[in-house]
Amino acid sequence: MLDSHLKKTNQTDKFCDISLAVPIFHAYGHKSSCQVRYSCRWQEGYGLTDGEVMERLWSYLRQFAYSTKEMTPSHRIDRLTAALLHYARKKKHEMDALLCRNIDKAQYLVNCCTQELEKIKFSNNVSDQDISEWLKWEQDRAKASTRKTRTGNSDASKNKQELLNKLHAQAMEYTFVRTLRRKYSSGQAIANRICRTITSACSNMKKLLALYNEEVDDDKKLEWNDVCKPDAAVYKTLSNADQLPHSSCGSEVRHIAVDLYLHKMRAEEEITLSKEEMVNCMQWYVFQSAILQEEMTNAISRGQLDCLNRRYNVLMKGFKRAREMFSKFLSEDELPEITFSSNVTNSIVMEEDLAPIDYEQEDIDVMEDNIDQDDIDSFEDDMED
Fold it and tell me: pLDDT of 358-377, one tens digit each?
């Protein structure tokens, strides 16, 4: 991990103002302690960002693989550059609709998570304070966890207490990923990735269990069902097991409650962040209009002014559409208006003010008179051949 490398090489000061996170899809390939510390859903300030923007870009560019593999390097670069510019223009054009969809999705998620949390709190007699304490306990456990569990360490095999600590850590890992697995249907890529993590945790637990049974008498040997749950009786003697607040609830219930609590927090952040982006989007339109006004003031030819009028119409279309869509979520004070100074107002020609071209009949007659009959006969001869 980058964070571990920076700490080892004493370079943490270079990224002191940057928080590191693992994309949602790739996070499921990491152990639970890594997910708790670096997943976008566990980090404050990320909203519902999944961090998979580059994956979507690679997916878009994949369709150009067959058409560009036989091209020369220069032609291939030109084709991919044109594709990327088109992709950027499309994203820019859909920005207003995307922000509105993000808020609607986040608000729906807040409502769903709130309902599910109320059910859990009522059926298990817990409060928001208990859930926040579970969250803090998970975060503290992840920070205190070792970087890697060494199942083949000969020193660890001689210490039953240390083996139990490792078994408890693996049991929490096993329960954590099993809870995640229930959220996805079989066959999905994320589900397959989580299944591999479950298999790895299960294998580590079996190895540790075998080492533990070698160190105890036959009447004290443990079975799989004795160690697979982190709140099992065998772990009650461990010092870190007593630190869990409101431990009467099952581990799966705690994980589900914490997951819902986190999703609700991230969804509320997403609403705030999307509204801030809406304000930034409107300010961008105002800034671009100011640049356009200056260019129209300094226009030296009618052709240049016509080009600026075209840019103005495109800008105003986007501004009006964004303002109309954002009015559902922002107040009037947060929605600016674009005003033009008097020295450029007369130079602006709105697209709707341009009358459609309508040729007079006499102009059409003049055009027909200018057509040479020999040219028509020559064209007809070519068509017959």
Answer: 434 444 343 344 444 454 45
